[in-house]
């Protein structure tokens, strides 16, 4: 049977907007040693804005954003949302054929027989597109038409106001390691990691590489220690499932993540994790 104190703990958490799906997860929070975060939508707001549209001599910026918006029109990725917002017009989806969203890379689609590629460095490299390397502070979205690079868009996200409190709070209650995993580029990951004082980060990861890293990180804890993964659910359901305790952001998060998670933070504030661990510690004192 479940000791009564757990109901108090779960109830107390739910009053603070933290949904705990079972007493075993609340109990596990007592032994957390490592907290692994996803970046986009978890430590950052997950709301990008377009900061630059880089045109070339032949192709004006209006055309570049139009191609990008066409390609992104079926995607629910935060990157796609920002590009569609910046474009600001309706997209004629009837023109689109052979649409493919490639996780951790971007989009491949045909428009009126033209082959469009919209995505990151990895996408350009796998498709053997020649382009000049770009140094920009932001996420760079390259645009290629019929295998020719025609320009790029730079988009920027913001760190959540609450993220610093979360990291400081976790340290103050004795969490040994805070780590970030991201599919985004190294420059951004490094900047965020320094700003927040994370112990480590891994960038430019594909979804399956996030799972591999998580398993590696998991080797670094003690026998009874637990590892938490906190994500927003876009492409991270497999990582959520692999952690001892999977925590999802409920606001921006996808239904799949909320389903896969053991704990859901309703208002998307990562510092709620500190609150949850404190509740778990109080609950253990009452129960045992
Ligand atoms: P994160 O780890 O930050 O949550 P994702 O795994 O969702 O990021 O994506 C990793 C990277 O793959 C993005 O930073 C972007 O460069 C590229 N990417 C993913 N989806 C798209 C898309 N719809 N359009 C353009 N680029 C994308
Ligand atoms: Mg993500």
Give the C-alpha Rg: 21 Å
Bound molecules: adenosine-5'-diphosphate, magnesium ion
Class inferred from helices and paired strands: alpha/beta
CATH topology of the largest domain: Rossmann fold
Q: Specify the CATH homologous superfamily of the largest domain.
A: HAD superfamily/HAD-like
Strand order of the largest sheet: 1-13-12-11-2-9-10
**Could you give the count of β-strands?**
13
Assembly level: single chain
Strand portion: 25-35%
Q: Give the overall shape, derived from the CA principal axes.
A: elongated
Order of helices and strands: HEHEHEHHEEEHEEHEHEHEHEHEH
Largest sheet: 7 strands, mixed
User: Residue ranges: pLDDT <50 for 5 or more in a row?
Assistant: none
Number of helical elements: 12
Question: Regarding CATH, which class of the largest domain?
Answer: Alpha Beta
Helix coverage percent of residues? Answer: 25-40%
CATH architecture of the largest domain: 3-Layer(aba) Sandwich
Subcellular location: Cell membrane
Protein name: Cadmium-translocating P-type ATPase
Family: Belongs to the cation transport ATPase (P-type) (TC 3.A.3) family. Type IB subfamily.
Organism: Alkalicella caledoniensis
């Amino acid at each position: 049977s479940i000791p009564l104190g757990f109901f108090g703990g779960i109830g107390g958490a739910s009053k603070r907007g933290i949904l705990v799906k079972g007493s075993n997860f609340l109990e596990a929070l007592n032994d957390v040693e490592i907290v692994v975060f996803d970046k986009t939508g978890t430590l950052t707001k997950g709301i990008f804005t377009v900061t630059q549209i880089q045109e070339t001599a032949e192709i004006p910026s209006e055309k570049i954003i139009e191609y990008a918006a066409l390609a992104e029109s079926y995607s629910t990725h935060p990157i796609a949302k920002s590009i569609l917002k910046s474009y600001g017009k309706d997209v004629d989806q009837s023109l689109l054929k052979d649409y493919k969203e490639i996780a951790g890379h971007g989009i491949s689609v045909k428009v009126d027989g033209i082959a469009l590629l919209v995505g990151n460095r990895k996408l350009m490299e796998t498709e053997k597109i020649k382009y000049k390397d770009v140094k920009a502070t932001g996420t760079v979205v390259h645009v290629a038409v019929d295998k020719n690079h025609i320009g790029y868009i730079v988009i920027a996200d913001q760190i959540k106001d609450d993220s610093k409190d979360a990291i400081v709070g976790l340290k103050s209650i004795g969490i040994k390691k805070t780590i970030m995993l991201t599919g985004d580029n190294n420059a951004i990951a490094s900047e965020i990691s320094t700003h927040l004082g994370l112990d480590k980060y891994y960038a430019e990861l594909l979804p399956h590489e996030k799972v591999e890293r998580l398993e590696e990180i998991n080797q670094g804890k003690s026998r009874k220690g637990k590892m938490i993964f906190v994500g927003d659910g876009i492409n991270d359901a497999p990582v959520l499932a692999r952690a001892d305790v999977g925590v999802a952001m409920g606001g921006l998060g996808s239904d799949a993540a909320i389903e896969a998670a053991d704990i859901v933070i309703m208002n998307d504030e990562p510092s709620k994790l500190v609150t949850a661990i404190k509740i778990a510690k109080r609950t253990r004192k009452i129960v045992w």
